[in-house]
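Hey,
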Amino acid sequence: MPINPKNNTAKLPPRMELFYLLCLPGEGVYKNHRCEELRKEIAKSYFKTENSSQAEQAWKNFLEREMGDLFQRKIIFFAVPFDGGAGVQRGASLGPIVARYFLKEFFLENKDWLVDLGDIKTIPYLIKDEYVSDKIVEGARRFLYQDEKINLPIASLDMAERLLRNIKAIASKPVPFLVWGEIILLAIL
């Protein structure tokens, strides 16, 4: 019997979902070469390397090592690269990487109370899962998670909502702060 990806009931623990939903800061828009220099600069500042695979491993190690203390911080930052409302002129999804580039020193100087979890890895023009067909959901899950059967959202708004729900399940104190394309949102849980 084929699995309907929208109705798959397999559930992952909230901490594990974080690793599926998030990716290295600045890497949320797949293969976008327009900001390659900014990405390298962020990786160098945050993880002391310009090599993307070394930076990704350092980021994963950081999340695993700091998971308990991570959510004791007052503010958690994560980015949702999104282009769905941009119309003909694309580029709003680059907002998070540009914000990080200009705020990187601020992030590093204030890491006792502020933490950057990374980007939600998005397909930047998908808004809600319910707006797309089962075939697109299946293909997007295969692309984003390397598994079309995993029960995780594929659209930006649904992914951000799921991540916020996971943060709330793990910890109750922090105030998540996210950059959504060119719009800055503050969500208090």
